[in-house]
User: What shape does this take?
Amino acid sequence: MISRRAAPLVVLPALLAGLHAAAQGPGLVRHTEAIDHRVQRTVELPGTVESRTTSEVASEVSGLVVEMKVRPGDRVPKGQPLAQLRTEFVELQLEEASGQLKEAEARLAQAERNLDRSRRLSDEAVISQGDLDDAHSERIAWQGKVDQTKARIAQLELGLDRCTIRAPFDGAVVEKRTDVGQWMQQGGTVVEMIAPDDVEVRIDVPERYYHLLRMAAEVRVEFEALPGEEIVGRVDQIVPRADPRARSFPVKVSIANDEGRIGVGMLARVSLPVGETYRATVVPKDAVIRQGGREYLYRINGEQLVETVVVESGQGIGDWVVVKGAISPGDRVVTRGNERLQPGQAVQGEALDYPRP
Assistant: This one.
């Protein structure tokens, strides 16, 4: 008997995928049309969040630290006490000066009475002009002593007030530089403060882009700590001197931080506009799927079936992204439900509008 071996069955992967998709039935999706858009060329640069206001808060007087009223991380309003120096010595000096002022004022009052009497006696030719001049000089001397003592008291009161080191602006304490029991020299740093709500992003722009920089130019900023979010900022400062080693120019970008979610020192990616605009096909970022080192999207054809289109994504513009590949303006791309699709699967759904870039 002659036996015959059955020929092996070869099934293409695409056919298997199509059969599997057909077995699944129509998928529920949302779709959006690709559009043609004029895009501003940009360069992506790393940046770091900085506070516009940073201060090493110093003491205006010398003294022993008796109390620290804040810790790193505390938010403080302008004028809030940060540290307290010992005040007993200044208070004793102030008490002494107050006593000296009372004495000087009493002496001044007596000198004024003496001057009035001397004037009357001089008019009556009882005393000489020299005696009148002496009375007048004594009154001036004691007036000077009163003024001098008042100035001394004002100095002591100011010194007493400055024994309390206060926040110079609304901000946050980031570092404590002294502690209770330490002697604070005049000009010594008590704490370091920043204004965490008033921030900017510093980027170093290569010299080849320097001539393309424009003040107030709109830029887009993303943060590693806030994935998926994009903030619009503006070029606020261009420092016209390059770093001699890196040959790059410091540029500051102003951004809003009303909710306080952007911390000083965060890493950022800034899309800086450079060069001319160009036309490109853009799709919503939600349409692009990244898997295994490749990028693709699902396009709905005229038979309501999805087909895979390999693309290469480029510059992002808000919720949209530039794509290169076999995709054209007007093509319907799946933007919701694409993670469950298979090539060749039938779909049904409705259009999903995105704000235009």
Remarks:
- The longest helix spans residues 88-123.
- The radius of gyration is 39 Å.
- The first strand starts at residue 27 and ends at 33.
